[in-house]
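Much of the work behind modern protein science is quiet bookkeeping, done one molecule at a time. The protein below has been through that process, and both of its lines are reproduced in full.


***
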Amino acid sequence: MGSNSIASRKSPSKEELRFEGFLRGKKLKLTGERMAILNAIFMRDSHFDAETLHADLRAKGGDISRATVYRTLDLLVQCCLVRKNSLGSSHANYEAARDNEHHDHLICLNCGKVIEFYRPDLETLQEKICTENTFKPMHHSLQIFGLCNNCKDKADEGQIRNRVAQLHT
């Protein structure tokens, strides 16, 4: 697919407009592949890794290379349209960065389930801690690793301790 101007299409999304402006500012081409990747991400409602995204795009008939997926994810992270997380795994996980949506994560060490949560009282406490330490916060990420309700009674303690020791956060 070649260069593609979203200005010629009906009602581009705010994410498409933002990405187009970002690419123009970097003197990079707006391609159909890049827009397909962006749209596929914003249609998802869960975390994903680059390999899963690539496989999903291919399964839907897209002829997008793995390298293009990785390069576009890097650009989308730079543009603040996508958040990159480790979630304790050795490879990166991603999620769409929706407007003013902040949440933290509970991550099951047995099945890998990720539970997103938001607590205003926790946010207030974090702000208070920063104020008390005359610290200007720019970003934060809270990840709590443990066992979900389905795994808490059936997980092998030795395997879980080993996973905790090998966390990449």
Summary: The domain at 1-100 is CATH 1.10.10.10 (Arc Repressor Mutant, subunit A). The longest helix spans residues 66-78.
